Each structure stands twice: as C-alpha cells, then as structure tokens.
Amino acid sequence: MSRSNQTSSLDKDFLITGFPNFRDQESRRYLFGAFLTVYLFTLVGNILLIIIFISDRTLHTPMYILICGLAVLDIAITTNTVPSMLVLFTFGYRVVPFAACFTQTTFWLGLCSAEGFLLALMAYDRYIAICNPLHYPNLMYNRHIIKLMAYCCLFCFFCSIVTVAVLARLSFCGPNQIIHCFCDFGSLLFLACGDVQIANYVVLVIGMSVLLIPLAFILFTYMKIIFSVVQIASAEGRMKAFYTCGTHMLVIFVFFLAVSGELIAVRIPGTSVDTRIMILIIQNVFPSLTNPIIYCLRTKEIRRSFIKTLKKLRLQVNNDRHQYC
C-alpha cells in the first residue's frame, strides 16, 4: 500500500450506525435499557465472584484461580464493547477514529480467543484431577496455572494483533459506515478496498486455529474423563465426578453455542442484518452474564463462601451501626 493510502487510512473516521431498523428514539431507548441492565448484572456477578475468591483463602486453588480468571475475562469482554454501544444508543450514531476502531477489534478478538483457551485449561484441570489424581499436586499448582493462563493470553493477543495488522495494511478508500454496534473484524473487512483474498485466507487460518484448537482439546479431555468416570466402581463416585465436571461442561456449552450460532447465522441466506448483529452481540455478552450464575448455583464451595461473605458484611454493618449509635 502506498504512503498516501496509509496516511488517508490512518486519518479516516468510521461511523458506527447500529441496527438499521432500530434507529428511532424509542427503539434506542429500549436497547439502551436492556444492555445497561445486562452490563450491570454482568459486572455485579463477576465482581462478586472475584471478591469471593480473594476473601476466602480456601478457594486459592488452581480450579478457582481459573474461575476467577474467567470472571476477569468476562468483565473485560463486555467492557470492551457494551459501554460504546450504550453511547451509540444514546446519540443514534458514533464517530470512531481509525486507531480506536482497530484497537477495539484487537481486544475483541484477543479476549474472546483467550476465553476459549481458558476453558480448555479448565478442561485440562478436571482431566488431571479425575484421571491422574495422585499427580495433581505436582502438575496443577497455583504458580503453574497462572503461568499457563498468561501464556494463553499472550498467544491469543499475538494472533489477534497479527490478524488486525493484516487488515490494517489494506486501504479504506470507500464508504466509512459500519453497520454494527461496535467495531468488529467482519465489518471492517467489508469496508476494505482492493484485493482482500490474502487477508481472508490469513484470517480463516488464524480464526479456525484459535477456535478449533481449544475445542478439539476440550472434546479429547472430556472423552478421557468420561472413560475414566465409567470405570469408577461406586455409583456415588461416578455421580460426584460427573457433578464436578457438569458445571464446566455447561459453561463450555454456553460459550461455544454462542460462537457457533454467530458463525451459522452469517451463512444462512435471508438472515436480516439486524438479526446477525443481535446474534453477534449475544455471543459477546451472554456467556459473560451466565457464567457467574452457573458457578454460584452449581458450585457449593462458592455458595458457602458467598453466604459466609454476606454474614461477615452483615456483622460489620451491625457493628458500625452500634458504634455510630
């Protein structure tokens, strides 16, 4: 790309238009209220999980470190997109500079990919705990799991930066309207001028890698887990093992169902633009909203710690009230 094209692209602003058929003030008001509610519930649920983890030292184990990491990722994923969407619904449009738009896309790709790899790490943790319990303390200790989480995040953001760098090298000389609620990769690629075939191939290879590698690993580990659980002699032992994995399997199902739903919707002929946008947004916010609910409802250690934290807070409030009186 020539120097003049690079300069014009870097100086370019994108216009985020939102839903094509929901631009009237009343529709935008409903959308603002719905997504603000979802965002606040997501923040409260995931921050509560983090507070429970920090305040209860008995939860400072690899499995709960992974759950805490998932809560941090969920907060980051929704914070990367939902606040900008709320601004869009308030004013009806949003002008975004070139650099800011590509930064949001980079974080969107990197964070979503990191969540998939984190779920794969959680599957590995359950695999070691059930299939090799005697080696678990040597293989899965806190410092090691934190290193693995860091490596996964670095790898995912490296892939994200490479993907966006390939896109940024293209020229954006045509229309600047992004028919979406935030800067996503597909919308930016649609606006690019010239031959985008190489960019499509690069994106396809990297995208399939960060999606299929964790999915294949998760399926492999759970096949091994199921095979090991079936061999457990007592029915009580089998139920305990399945219940331990059931929460994680439900979280995995929600995440990959949301991702596959977005991929399928894009390829169904006749699907409206509004429907595709909504499905992509749901894929972005729904797992972050449901994950803390699933863990709080299905993990008795977290429920017990939550009740203990509430009792401490109530006791602290009562003591402060007595001191004030």
Automatic annotation (TrEMBL):
Localization (cell): Cell membrane
InterPro entries: GPCR_Rhodpsn (IPR000276), GPCR_Rhodpsn_7TM (IPR017452), Olfact_rcpt (IPR000725), Olfactory_GPCR1 (IPR050939)
Cellular component GO terms, alphabetical: plasma membrane
Annotated PROSITE patterns: G_PROTEIN_RECEP_F1_1 (PS00237), G_PROTEIN_RECEP_F1_2 (PS50262)
Main localisation: membrane
Membrane topology, as annotated: Multi-pass membrane protein
Alphabetical list of SMART domains matching this protein: 7TM_GPCR_Srsx
MF-aspect GO terms: G protein-coupled receptor activity; olfactory receptor activity
Database matches in Gene3D superfamilies: Rhodopsin 7-helix transmembrane proteins
Bilayer-crossing regions: 30-54, 66-93, 105-124, 145-168, 198-220, 241-265, 277-297
Family in the record: Belongs to the G-protein coupled receptor 1 family.
Protein name: Olfactory receptor
Organism whose genome encodes this protein: Erpetoichthys calabaricus (Rope fish)
